[in-house]
Amino acid sequence: RVGTREVTMLKIGAVKAISVYQRFLSGLKPRCCRFYPSCSEFARQSFEKNGFFRAFVASFLRIAKCNPYF
């Protein structure tokens, strides 16, 4: 069973990974996001406000909607 401390660490890790993506990788590709806020900003906000698993699912579904293959 996953404890509260582990979930908190997962949330912090996810927010840091998204921040690194936004800072270093997001600028390398053209701006073509269909949504506002962008998918990465939505994911960051979701991880900050919700639990890890709910935020992960919401972020995955948002990115899937943005992807032209889904």
Strand and helix map with partners:
Blueprint: H1 4-25, H2 39-49, H3 52-66
Task: Kindly describe this structure.
By secondary structure, the protein is mainly α. The protein is 69% helix and 0% strand. The chain has helices at 4-25, 39-49, 52-66. The longest helix is centred in the N-terminal third of the chain and has 22 residues, at 4-25. It is globular. The termini are far apart. The model has no long low-confidence stretch (mean pLDDT 83).
The succession of helices and strands, N to C, reads HHH
Beta content comes to: under 5%
How would you state the average pLDDT, rounded?
83
What is the count of β-strands?
0
Helix content: 55-70%
State the secondary-structure class: mainly alpha
Q: Give the helix tally.
A: 3
Note poorly predicted spans.
Answer: none
Q: Tell me, briefly, the overall form.
A: globular
Indicate the radius of gyration in whole angstroms. Answer: 13 Å
Query: Largest beta sheet, briefly?
Result: none
Terminal residue distance: 33 Å
